[in-house]
Specification:
The complex is a heterodimer of chains A (235) and B (97). Chain A is mostly helical and 235 residues long. In chain A, 79% of the residues lie in helices and 0% in strands. Chain B contains 4 helices and 3 strands. In chain B, strands 1-3-2 form a 3-stranded antiparallel beta sheet. Classes of the chains: A mainly alpha (235), B alpha+beta (97).
C-alpha cells in the first residue's frame, strides 16, 4: 500500500493512544473557552474554542489514517461498505489514507493558524468584515498546501512548524506582558513542545524512530496544556 | 484598575469585589465610589445583579429617620461568580486572549 512515510511497527497503536489523549485535552480547552464565550459574549473565545475543536478533529483524522495503515480489518470493512459505489478494482485503502491525511492537514493547519491569529494582540482582529477576504485567502493557501503535502508530507509539518514558531513568539510576548505569569509560561512551553514535535516529524523519512520521539514530545506538550488547564480550573 | 475601558463583566466583577472587600455588605454610596461608577450606571448594574440574585438589598429601619437606609449584600451566587470570573481571567491571561 502507498504510504507517505514509514513508522516503527512496534509503535503502531501507541501513537493512537497518545493522540486520543491529545484529542480529549483539546476538547476540554475548547469546552472551557466556549463556556467563557457564553459568559462574556466576546467573539475571540468562540474562535479559540473553534481552534481547539479543529485540533481535536485533526488528531481524529490522524488516528483514522494510522488505523487504515495498522488495522487490516478496518481497511477491509471500509472497502466492503464502499464497494457498490466505488467498484472493486479501486485501491480503497490508498484513497482513504490520502483523503484522511488531506483532511488531517487542512484541519490541523487551520487550527494552528487560528490560534496564531488569536494570539496576535490586535484589538480589531476578526471583527471587521474585510478580514473575511484575508481568512478566505488563508483557507485557499491551507488547502493548496494540504494538496501539495499529499505528495511531499514534510511540507505539512514544515508549514505547521512555521505557524507554531510564530505562535510561540506571541506566547513569549504574552508571558513578558503578563508580568511573568507562571500559567502563561506553561502555555508557551506547551506550544514549544508541539513546535519541536512538528520539526522532528519533518525528518521522519530519514530515520523512522524519530516518529516516536515526535509523538512523545507532542504528548508532553498536550499534557502540559492539561496541567495548566487543571491549575486554572481547580483554583 | 487599568486605564482601558472595562468590559461589562469586569464592571460586574468590580461591583461584587467591592462588596466582598467590605465583608459582604456595603452602603450603596460607598459601593458607587469603590466600584468607580456613576449613580446611573451603578443603578443599571444593580438591577441586573438583583435580577440574577447575585446581590440583595437589606433595609435598615432607624428611629430618627422616616426612610430606612439600604445595605447591599453579596449572595452565595455572587461569591460563586467572583470565583468563576477569577478562573476565567486566569485562563484568558494564560492564553493571552
Amino acid at each position: 500500500m502507498y504510504r507517505l512515510f514509514f513508522t516503527p511497527e512496534w509503535f503502531n497503536g501507541f501513537d493512537l493512544v497518545f493522540e486520543t489523549i491529545g484529542l480529549i485535552i483539546a476538547l476540554m480547552i475548547a469546552f472551557y473557552s466556549y463556556k467563557i464565550f457564553r459568559f462574556s459574549k466576546e467573539n475571540k473565545f468562540v474562535y479559540f474554542s473553534l481552534a481547539f475543536v479543529l485540533v481535536a478533529l485533526g488528531l481524529g483524522f490522524k488516528m483514522f489514517t494510522s488505523s487504515v495503515l495498522y488495522f487490516f480489518p478496518l481497511r477491509e470493512s471500509v472497502a466492503i461498505v464502499l464497494k457498490p459505489v466505488m467498484g472493486g478494482g479501486l485501491t480503497l485503502a490508498d484513497l482513504f489514507y490520502r483523503a484522511a491525511f488531506f483532511m488531517q492537514m487542512s484541519v490541523m493547519l487551520s487550527a494552528w493558524l487560528l490560534i496564531f491569529f488569536i494570539s496576535q494582540k490586535s484589538r480589531e482582529r476578526l471583527k471587521k468584515y474585510h478580514e473575511i477576504s484575508q481568512i478566505a485567502l488563508f483557507i485557499y493557501l491551507i488547502l493548496l498546501i494540504s494538496i501539495v503535502a499529499n505528495f511531499r508530507y514534510f511540507i505539512f509539518y514544515l508549514t505547521s512548524a512555521v505557524i507554531l514558531g510564530m505562535t510561540v513568539l506571541n506566547y513569549y510576548k504574552n508571558y513578558l506582558n503578563s508580568k511573568r505569569n507562571k500559567n502563561s509560561f506553561r502555555v508557551m512551553l506547551s506550544f514549544l513542545f508541539i513546535l519541536f514535535s512538528n520539526i522532528i516529524f519533518i525528518f521522519v523519512s530519514f530515520y523512522d524512530k524519530l516518529y516516536i520521539v515526535g509523538e512523545v514530545i507532542m504528548l508532553i506538550g498536550f499534557l502540559l496544556l492539561l496541567s495548566t488547564y487543571r491549575r486554572i480550573t481547580k483554583k | 484598575m487599568t486605564g482601558s475601558r472595562r468590559s461589562r463583566l469586569e464592571l460586574v466583577f468590580d461591583i461584587l469585589l467591592a462588596i466582598q472587600n467590605k465583608g459582604g455588605r456595603i452602603k450603596p454610596t460607598h459601593l458607587m465610589y469603590k466600584s468607580n461608577l456613576s449613580h446611573k450606571l451603578l443603578n443599571q448594574y444593580m438591577e441586573e445583579l438583583l435580577e440574577k440574585e447575585m446581590v440583595q438589598i437589606e433595609k435598615i429601619e432607624h428611629r430618627k429617620r422616616k426612610t430606612p437606609s439600604k445595605m447591599v449584600l453579596i449572595t452565595d451566587k455572587g461569591l460563586g461568580f467572583l470565583a468563576e470570573f477569577r478562573r476565567m481571567r486566569e485562563f484568558t491571561d494564560a492564553f493571552g486572549l
